[in-house]
Amino acid sequence: MDRTSPDLARAFRLGIRDGLPFLIVIVPFGMLFGVLASEAGWSMAEMMAMTILVIAGASQFTALQLLSEHAPLFIAIATALAVNLRLAMYSASLAQEIGSTPLLGRLLAAYCLTDQTYGISMNRLALGPAMTQRERLAHFLGGAVPVCIPWYFATWLGAVLGNAIPPAFALDFAVPITFIAIVGPGLRTLPQAAAALVSVVVALALASLPYNLWLLAAAVAGMMTGAMTEIWLERRKAGNESPK
């Protein structure tokens, strides 16, 4: 009798439960992208292809805005990639938790890696209970169910409804709330808080730059600050532990 299956099933269900609150913002977030892409003249095939292939709301909105402003294509691609650089850091962190699981599962996790699914996984890691790597993968994929699938549907729904959605609904509320909900609980260390603070300050200071270049500057400044703070803390710890 396979005694691991019930544990994997429980972890998967726990992931779904952890991800359900994000439906509150995933649906309006996806609908907003569908509405804006439709207003920009994108076809249903174009917007759904981007949603399914990219599945990264922040970079999708960034690319959509830049292309709508007739920015050079390489600027749109470079900026979208810069926005998604955080996913490389997520991957490095997540690899420590699911690195020895089967390749197919890791490939699926790579596709489903978003701010929300990473946040769900890391918050559960901090809260417990302890899980094996296979259970963590099952939990991660469970969290992707209420995040990724509704994202596709919401994009399609926003494109179909378009201007029929009353402006009073203010779907754009979902964008800042989504990232506050993800980032806020994760700011547990000084490097994390310093990176967040510096990126906000730089973004606000350089908000007038064209083509959303302030995003590139804020991302780089935030990553550099986090890394430098981490190095400073490690050196300080090493100095305190050295023989007097």
Automatic annotation (TrEMBL):
Family note: Belongs to the AzlC family.
Domain of life: Bacteria
Pfam families from the UniProt entry: AzlC
Full protein name: Putative branched-subunit amino acid permease
Keyword Oxidoreductase attributed: no
GO cellular component: plasma membrane
Main localization, broad class: membrane
Membrane topology: Multi-pass membrane protein
Keywords: Cell membrane, Membrane, Transmembrane, Transmembrane helix, Transport
UniProt keyword Protein biosynthesis, yes or no: no
Subcellular location as annotated: Cell membrane
Transmembrane segment boundaries: 20-37, 73-92, 137-158, 164-183, 190-207
GO BP annotations listed: L-valine transmembrane transport
Annotated InterPro entries: Brnchd-chn_aa_trnsp_permease (IPR011606)
